[in-house]
Amino acid sequence: MDNLWIVCVTAILLSTIILYSTWRRIRSRYRIPLPLGTLGWPFIGETLEFISCAYSDRPERFMDKRRGKYGKVFKSHIFGSRTIVSTDAEVSKFVLQSDAKVFVPSYPKSLTELMGKSSILLINGSLHRRIHGLIGAFFKSPQLKAQITQDMQKYVEESMEGWKDDRLIYIQDETKNIAFQILVKVLISLNPGDEMEFLKKQFQEFIAGLMSLPAKKKMVKLVQKIVQDRRNSSSSTLPKDVLDVLLNDASEKLTGNLISDNMIDMMIPGEDSVPVLMTLAIKFLSDCPAALQQLTEENMKLKRLKAQLGEPLCWSDYMSLPFTQNVITETLRMGNVIVGVMRKAMKDIEIKGYLIPKGWCVFTYFRSVHLDEHHYDWPYKFNPWRWQDKDMGTTCNFTPFGGGQRLCPGLDLARLETSIFLHHFVTQFRWVAEDDSIVNFPTVRMKRRMPLWIKRRRDP
């Protein structure tokens, strides 16, 4: 009996020591408190409520509700991961500007399996810096901007030639057709034709099926053939597209499969984000006659000037239109084509008194920052004049293209394409928009594809 008592006491003491030691380790590790919040239901967390809000006209309500209870940074559990959600501009900036030793991309498993480990959205370290740097430098090159301007003008004019007076067009479909052709030309120099139509069809299935794997495999097969043909006919001339840029690099890590996969991933803006940016600009302008009038007058003035000089418009002409750029900026703020990014912490991180534990996901939610009344007066009102005389490079409250090492390399290209489209559209047509609404999930788009009744201008 005494021996049994000794065993029980010893077991209790050992258990107490182990529990105390564990508690001390946890307390030592988490001496900085986790953000407030709740992890929701077992397994599903708060995912269902997040998706329910995302389908509404105010998807930020999920964030606003918790921000009111817990603060701008809070913990949750969405898409299968314990997550720290940031609606704080400074915290989000810190996450975006950190390198791969601190944060790495982290997206739902279904998306990462589809994109593949070699996707530029997921790779890290020197390989990511290499690919991102090569593409970014090419997108900024004067020869590309000159070529893109010519091609974009050509595709826009060819598309608009077929538009008849008093005809209903769906602007979202028209912009997708134009922007996709432009981006595919930039990436692999593919001109309109059967192969372009095949790619376009597969890409529409890819997006409509919430990223359909069979459609992607068909596209990759076509691009792999183009990559192999290009390798067999390689030359030392200046690169004419992104494919040339990557093939000309000496790195052995840039394999044919990696290049092919990334060509497909980089086509997404041509089918999705850039056309939506153009469409939303037309939507907001249709609802704001004063902004439409000022933008039209600015572009008409440029058109008349270039006609008098007998000169074609170049990319610097489009980018020098101040009010047009303000309209695009305000569309990016209100439209939030990219609502945020997801990262995984590689170690315990402390920022502004918050702890982000190692292994947790961080969701930097841009939309809440862009629609925060503390940053923008009347945030739900389309007001391009708010950007007059503002230096966007000095604020962390505006991040439509992300930031840091993963800042979207095509941001200037997206602005240029949108500027060219708006210029030609407002200087050639008047229109009446039918009622339509914005859908925010799973991607931003117009519910009815933005129907417009158009009439060609008869201005002298």
From TrEMBL:
It is a single-pass membrane protein. Keywords: Heme, Iron, Membrane, Metal-binding, Monooxygenase, Oxidoreductase, Transmembrane, Transmembrane helix. Gene3D superfamilies: Cytochrome P450. One of its GO terms (cellular component) is membrane. The keyword Heme applies. One of its GO terms (biological process) is petal development. Signal peptide: none annotated. One of its GO terms (molecular function) is iron ion binding. PROSITE patterns: CYTOCHROME_P450. It is found in: Membrane. Its cofactor is heme. Its main location: membrane. Pathway: Plant hormone biosynthesis; brassinosteroid biosynthesis; Steroid biosynthesis; Hormone biosynthesis. Belongs to the cytochrome P450 family. This is 3-epi-6-deoxocathasterone 23-monooxygenase. It comes from Tetracentron sinense (Spur-leaf).
